[in-house]
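TODO from last week: model Membrane protein YesL.
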Amino acid sequence: MKARTMDRFGTFAECLLTGVWIALAALPLVTLPAAFAAGARHLNRHLAHETSGWREFTADLRAAVRRGWLVGLAGWAALALLLADIAFVRAGLPGGAFVGAVGVVALFVLVVTGLRAAANWGPGASWRTLLTEAVRRTLRDPAGSLVIVCGFAVVVASAWFALPLAAPALGMVAAAALAVERRGTAV
């Protein structure tokens, strides 16, 4: 019992450390998908009791950034479109509330899809293929998608409580995405 508890605590601590690594790697902003991909691979290796440390994380990050920065750029473009959408809603255009709600739901779908793709990333994987498959899983598994959205709620609540807590909480989002994807393959 005691060894099992310590193993679970070690996994929790590894998630927190991974969150800090993700936050540091995502500072250029367009590297956010690559940082989550490297973080998910790190956690996957840790859970498999394989060598997993800073060197492996940075090697995965370098590999993921090669094409992942384009995914990050597209994500920020989507966010800019959502902010424009919100500006139109606030302007009082007819049907603006409906368009705003659709925009927010679309943003959640895009974010969850990106995280699901990042959780399945591996060296040499095509981001386009990962994203295409992740869209299907996002729409077919609403419960899993909700788990990932709730992970983001933890990050927001942590940031609201104390901004520095948001960085380690990012590891919880990576762990949630990894768990949802593992659950999907186990079923």
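Done. The mean pLDDT is 88.
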